[in-house]
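Title: Prediction job returns without error message
Component: structure pipeline
Severity: low
Priority: P3
Assignee: unassigned

Description:
Job completed but the reporter wants confirmation the result is attached to the right record. Sequence as submitted:
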Amino acid sequence: MVIRFIGKIFQWRGPAPYLFVAVPDKDSQDIKSVSQILTYGWGVIPVTVTAGRTEWKTSLFPKDGRYLVPIKMAVQRAENLKEGDKVRLQLELNL
């Protein structure tokens, strides 16, 4: 499954030094519908993400009925991204 969307980058005061982008509601519902075959525990979903020319592997985190995409510091630097920016993301769910 490949999902493409534009989202706003925000900071979540969570356990990681990342900024995040929330997956839209409809796409989050689609991911949730296949989550049982994809998750490796705690509801996280392995994905390959592309932003601009940068691709990385990470996991989506479930939060309040949606999924969050962590934007690693290396990606922030490579794509010149910061809190408040809108970014076009492509997610490829990894089986």
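Comment from assignee: result matches the submitted record. The chain is about 20% helix and 45% strand.
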